Task: inverse folding
């Protein structure tokens, strides 16, 4: 079993942090998205979609999409549970993961992929060959900041985002917010509950993954 | 417990089909997205995000995001399993659900929400108040058609999309493809494996949900 990964890339990091929280160590193969290694024939022979992260199982089959890879490991090693235990907590965690993806991850990727020359004709991950759309970059930052305000209000009453304990929602948000910071979208200083949560997350050893 | 729903809308339909497959009957409250009822104060008091579908639990709390609501019911009534049973099948189903959402659902919504006057300043679901971006509509159809080719090749060797049995991936694809047809994106006639799969899905009683 091996993970096709890119150190520094935000979606692969979701898997790396998840594995660190589960104390699972697997082989990782680095693929450089910035220089387009994910779109070259060697990698497309492994994953024709050209996306990362990709998990290759021992039977040779592959699973891509960060959330799908994480759910594989949630089953293989249930402790500690990161996708919830009760029906309600499982649903609430999934809902938050989706909101963080839609309202923070996606608009941040929109900013990066529709402005950075490295992503010319790659504004959507993988082999889509899509032109950059500057309007997406313009609205991306506003969307992220609007979500940060909402998340800050939510965190005023909660130690973790979606549950009484650390969950996949916290991982998704940590990776999304660090990604946004890399892209130039800072957390406004007045959002102190969000800043406090970030500081707590940064102390976890998995944050280094 | 009640489901805030809109008959005819594709994401609420994912939940309705899921409930039909599980043989679960719950109260449904209709909210009209087209005329903006989801953005009026009565509904925002229930779900401040202004999105559908929303599940309100008996304790008054809410869960939104179609996939999160479906996962709630997968836990409450595990049979028949629609998100898989083994670690691998759970991961593969989640991966396909994500691919169908990203490569069919999202670009179809891009076409509708960036062209239809009813969605002026609502190009993103909910309270975002975002202007339409015509370039998203232009590329949306191409993206959906590219995905259809890939899905057709995949279905040449598979009765169902992600598993040996019917799963949440089939529900997601059925709702996405019917939605695309409504928006004016037809399945090309040469994609016969995809057409055959669609015909099989349409025979399931849940398809009427």
Result:
């Amino acid at each position: 079993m091996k993970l096709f990964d890119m150190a520094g890339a935000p979606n692969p990091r979701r898997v790396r942090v998840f594995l660190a929280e589960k104390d699972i160590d697997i082989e990782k193969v680095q693929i450089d998205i910035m220089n387009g290694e994910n779109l070259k024939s060697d990698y497309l022979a492994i994953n024709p979609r050209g996306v990362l992260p990709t998990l290759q199982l021992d039977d040779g089959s592959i699973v891509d999409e960060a959330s799908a890879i994480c759910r594989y490991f949630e089953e293989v090693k249930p402790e500690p549970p990161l996708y919830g235990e009760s029906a309600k907590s499982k649903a609430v965690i999934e809902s938050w993961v989706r909101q963080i993806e839609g309202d923070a991850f996606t608009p941040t990727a929109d900013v990066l992929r529709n402005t950075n020359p490295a992503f010319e004709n790659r504004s959507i991950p993988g082999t889509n060959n899509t032109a950059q759309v500057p309007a997406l970059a313009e609205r991306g930052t506003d969307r992220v900041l609007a979500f940060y305000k909402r998340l800050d209000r939510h965190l005023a009453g909660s130690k973790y985002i979606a549950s009484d304990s650390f969950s996949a929602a916290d991982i998704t948000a940590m990776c999304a917010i660090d990604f946004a910071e890399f892209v130039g979208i800072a957390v406004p200083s007045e959002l102190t509950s969000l800043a406090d949560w970030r500081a707590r997350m940064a102390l976890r050893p998995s944050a280094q993954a």
About this structure: The interface with chain B takes residues 49, 55, 57, 61, 63-65, 67-69, 71-72, 75-76, 86-88, 90-92, 94-95, 98-99, 124, 128, 130-131, 133, 135-136, 139, 143, 146 of chain A (CB under 8 Å).
